[in-house]
Design a protein that fits this description.
single chain; mainly alpha
Length: about 290
């Protein structure tokens, strides 16, 4: 450590960030087991045991929240996770470096658009009156659809707009992994008469497999954590049955209704599921002799 102290100094701001904003706040998690009274503080508030957890599990909203959160998370995992892998493999096959850089720029530029702006764009494009999508439907003789108010369309709009916004940015990691593959493997495969698909299947995919597994573990580890900002902005009274998830419910009961202990208990339950999934998937990766976090 003394010989490489400069590297540890570079690491220090990151360590301080996690200590200050992630570890020290864990002290407040105990309010999930208390009847928190702001005037008494965390330490002075009386203990409530598992009262808040029981209240949540017995709530009529519990199964709806769990179903919506799991459904949206699984939809994202099945669609949004493989999308950047496929895009990276396609970009890697482009022969023109200039065109490749152009495609990369165009695909990851949406990542820098604010979530508020993206939801505003969705409202404009999917408007039943003047929206581009409904105008196209009318041109082909169809009937306009109020997409943003239809519960059946909520998950699809949320996931695919997320793919459009983030898939290009996520390809950066996979493209970096692809560049680390020895080009002599591709040269030998071409000499042996391998097609592009065979080279992708037997060289590119195995080459990026460790990166894919690590990112998959991290993704599953945050399986229950759906970005509530976008969900909350897309919510309305007509699609609430499909769009109300644990994160938006915690925001409403915790900050809007000031039920701090109750919302803390729900958040802790959500985090416990994420932690259990992370440990389970990491253990599975180790048993399969794949890359793992530990």
């Amino acid at each position: 450590m003394a010989a490489s102290y400069e590297l540890y100094l570079f690491l220090l701001p990151t360590l301080l960030y996690f200590i200050v904003f992630h570890y020290i706040p864990m002290y407040g998690v105990q309010i999930a087991f208390k009847r928190f009274i702001a005037a008494e503080g965390v330490a002075g508030s009386p203990w409530a045991g598992l009262e808040h957890f029981e209240r949540f599990f017995q709530s009529f909203q519990f199964w709806t929240l769990l179903r919506n959160t799991l459904g949206l998370s699984l939809y994202e995992l099945l669609v949004a996770f493989p999308a950047p892998i496929a895009l990276a493999l396609l970009i890697n096959q482009l022969a023109s470096e200039r065109f490749k850089k152009f495609v990369q720029t165009v695909t990851y530029a949406p990542h820098f658009i604010s979530v508020v702006v993206v939801v505003g764009m969705l409202n404009l494009f999917l408007s039943p009156r003047n929206g581009l999508v409904n105008r196209a439907i009318e041109m082909f003789g169809g009937t306009p659809v109020f997409f943003m108010a239809n519960p059946d369309w909520f998950k699809t709009i949320f996931v695919f707009s997320g793919v459009w916004q983030n898939a290009g940015w996520s390809t950066i990691v996979y493209l970096a992994a692809l560049t680390a593959i020895n080009p002599e493997l591709h040269e030998a495969a071409v000499v042996d008469g391998a097609s592009k698909w065979q080279r992708v299947r037997h060289i590119d995919l195995p080459g990026i497999a460790p990166t894919v597994v690590i990112l998959w573990i991290l993704t599953v580890g945050s399986f229950m954590t759906v970005g509530y900002e976008k969900v909350y902005l897309m919510q309305n009274q007509l699609n609430i049955d499909s769009s109300e998830i644990i994160q938006t419910y915690v925001y409403k009961v915790g900050l809007l209704d000031a039920q701090y202990s109750y919302s803390a208990a729900i958040g802790l339950f959500n985090s416990a599921i994420n932690f259990a999934l992370l440990v389970a998937v990491n253990g599975w990766a180790r048993r399969m002799k794949q890359a793992s976090l530990w």
